[in-house]
Design goal:
The complex is a heterodimer of chains A (about 200) and B (about 150). In chain A, about 20% of the residues lie in helices and about 30% in strands. Chain A starts with 13 loop residues before the first helix and ends with a strand. Chain A is built from 4 helices and 7 strands; from the N terminus they run ααββαβαββββ. In chain A, helix 3 links the parallel strand 2 and strand 3. Chain B has about 150 residues and is an alpha/beta fold. The termini of chain B are far apart. Classes of the chains: A alpha+beta (about 200), B alpha/beta (about 150). At the A-B interface, helix 1, helix 4, strand 4, strand 5 and strand 6 of A face strand 2, helix 2, strand 5 and strand 6 of B.
């Protein structure tokens, strides 16, 4: 799987980092990632209110768990532990968690109506420490630039001129996606597209 | 009933994950062949670029760069569906990096409905072909020169 984000041990140009596949060297030596640190910078989103809660979506996060928590905070919990419902939430995801972040945002927009959205994309650098068995040589540190997506969902209106702004979807209008499938474009008899499955009732 | 799926998940696991929380006691013995339908034919302006995982990354990046430099477009729109979201984001960020900050990005997200056809494997089984709808995420990134 070619993931265009990784780079080797020395910080290379960003184009190389976007093209190279995941560094095979640590896997070949049976190294595993011990630590990951990143230079934290504030969210590049203007108009953040004082109270918002941050959902960090990673590659292994379960969407159901994330959304159960997020919808509870946005719609107001019954037991009043956190007080009144929140008005703003920021989802961030990096590297392989970006797609899952977008999926979480889309599902949340379906559950909670009338949310304004601002999305931002940027690169950030992370430092990963890879080590073999614990008593072996000290681990290697890899510096990597990974893409990050940062999405703000807010019940309050945001600036529509902001790049990356999306208004809340009105319930009557169809989805703005350009890929709505209505026709049956059936591919020819191609074994590579067909997969077998047992249908579970 | 549409269910939200992990984008990029292979359809081979379609049968295993059910939309109900509890595990299914009885498994339908009928074996189906899954066929993914292609998304609908895309409306495409001159400055629309749809990113996929089959074409080389560099080639798609060069195509976008050519549209911005030679094509005379002030903005292009990079689209990515499912697993190609990562690649679309990388292309857009690379374009911005190579322009020395002259370009700006605006990202929009959306949900796309995809339909799968389920055909029974055994023609004697008398099970009718079914269709299953699932949702996938998509991103649309506008890469543009801001107005002075």
């Amino acid at each position: 799987m070619t993931e265009p984000t990784s780079q080797r041990m020395c910080p290379s140009t960003s184009l190389n980092s976007a093209i190279q596949s995941f560094s095979p060297m640590p896997y070949q030596n049976n190294l595993r990632k011990v630590k990951q640190t990143e230079d934290s910078c504030p969210f590049p989103i203007p108009g953040l209110a004082a109270d918002f809660f941050h959902m960090r979506v990673k590659e292994g996060s379960k969407i159901r768990n994330l959304l159960r928590f997020a919808t509870a905070r946005m719609q107001g919990e019954g037991n009043e532990i956190h007080g009144r419902p929140q008005r703003q939430v920021v989802f961030t995801g990096s590297d392989r968690g970006v797609t899952k972040t977008i999926t979480c945002v889309e599902i949340l927009k379906r559950k909670v109506e009338g949310l304004h959205q601002v999305s931002k994309l940027y690169y950030k650098t992370v430092n990963e420490v890879w080590k073999g068995s614990l008593h072996s040589a000290p681990g290697i540190t890899i510096q990597r630039t990974v893409p990050v997506i940062c999405i703000l969902l807010s019940k309050d209106p945001l600036n529509p001129q902001e790049p990356g702004y999306q208004p809340p979807r009105s319930t009557s209008a169809p989805t703005d996606s350009t890929w709505i499938c209505k026709t049956s474009l059936r591919p020819p008899q191609c074994p590579t597209l067909a997969k077998r499955l047992y249908l579970e009732k | 009933m549409t269910e939200i799926r992990n984008p990029g998940m292979s359809s081979a696991t379609l049968g295993q994950s059910s939309d109900s929380g509890h595990c299914a006691v009885d498994i339908d013995p009928v074996e189906y062949t899954l066929r993914k339908r292609l998304p609908r034919k895309l409306p495409k302006r001159r400055n629309d670029v749809y990113v996929n995982m089959k074409t080389d990354f560099r080639a798609q990046l060069a195509r976008c760069q050519k549209l911005l430099d030679g094509g005379g477009h002030r903005e292009i729109c990079v689209h990515g569906l499912g697993l190609a979201i990562n690649r679309a984001i990388n292309i857009a960020l690379q374009l911005q990096a190579s322009s020395q900050g002259a370009l700006q990005l605006a990202a929009n997200t959306s949900t796309v409905e995809l339909v799968d056809d389920l055909e029974p494997e055994d023609p004697d089984e008398a099970a009718e072909p079914m269709t299953r709808t699932r949702n996938n995420s998509a991103i649309h990134i506008k890469v543009f020169y801001p107005d002075p």
